[in-house]
Amino acid sequence: MMEKKEVNKETFNRPDGVEVKLTAKSINIKGFLFFFILFLTGSYLFVYVWDEYSSFNAGLLLGTTIKGIISPKSLICTLLLVTFYTLLQAGVLYWFSGKDKKVLHWHSDWTSVGFIPTRPIPLKFYRVSLLLPGILLGIMPAIHGFCTGEANIFFLGLLGILGGTGDFLFWYSLRAFDDEDLLLAGKKAFQATIIKRNYGKND
Questions:
Q1: Residue 103: which of 170, 12, 169, 166 has the closest Cα?
Q2: Which residues contact 101 (CB under 8 A, 6 or more apart)?
């Protein structure tokens, strides 16, 4: 029995698998570029549909939006958006981790804040935790705001999409692995070890 416990402990702490990680530099560079592409394109499309189309109007909308982002009201909305995003992601991980809150570990650094699972979790469930918050709090509000002509909701949705850039990039980096593989999160954000479900069977 003692030998079995030691083997299980080693499997969780030092699994044999494929390490996947994103560097903070790559996330920040891509996020910086994505910010300008997303908001610039979004401004042109919004003005094209809902206003008299011109470069001046698109630039005015973009400038007003960026100026509004740093206002106290927008900063509060951004803080609430980050809070809801984090809680939603934690809820998904909590649900798929057996509803055991001890499984979740809080992490925070200058690239990301949130919860990460301390035990291996099926990759298909982890993918949901990466995509769902960005879809519900980013893509859907952006589509709603664009279709109804509500600029504030539209750009709030774009901000939600931007906030999920790291999660989207990490989800994309995991595309080569099978849904049934296990993911063991690293100590830092956007780092994990993928454990093959059939590992060792074919050796």
A1: 12
A2: 94
Q: How far apart are CA 84 and CA 92, in angstroms?
A: 12
Tens digit of pLDDT per residue, the chain (203 long)? 433 333 333 334 445 678 888 887 788 888 888 888 888 888 888 888 887 666 667 667 777 776 666 677 777 877 888 889 889 999 998 888 877 777 888 877 766 778 888 888 899 999 999 999 999 999 999 999 899 988 888 888 888 898 888 899 999 999 889 888 999 888 777 888 898 876 544 44
Could you give the count of Cα atoms lying within 13 Å of 72 in the half-sphere of its Cβ?
0
What CA–CA distances, in Å, run from 99 to 2, 83, 122, 135?
Answer: 27, 20, 15, 23
What DSSP state is assigned to residue 114? Answer: E
Residue type, 80: L
